[in-house]
Amino acid sequence: MSYSYEDLERDLAIGHELHFNFKGREYSISNNKDGWYLSESYSDYQSFVDTNELLAKGKIDGKLLKEIWDEVDVSVIF
Question: What is the pTM for the complete model shown?
Fold first, then answer.
C-alpha cells in the first residue's frame, strides 16, 4: 500500500489509528483517553499527549517516524 508521511499526518489528525511493519517488526499507533501511543507489538511503547507530539518525538531505532517512513509497510488503517 502506498501511504506517504503526509497521509499519516492527515489521518492521525482526524483520529485514525494504524498498524505497520518496519524491518520485520510490527508496530501500531493508537489512542485512548490518556493520549497517543507508538508501540512495538507485544513490547515497548512510547506515549504522547497528542499526534503533534507523537510525530515530533516518536522514534523507532533512534530515528523519527519521518526519517524511516519510506521503509514502512502499512498493513491496516482504522
Answer: 0.91
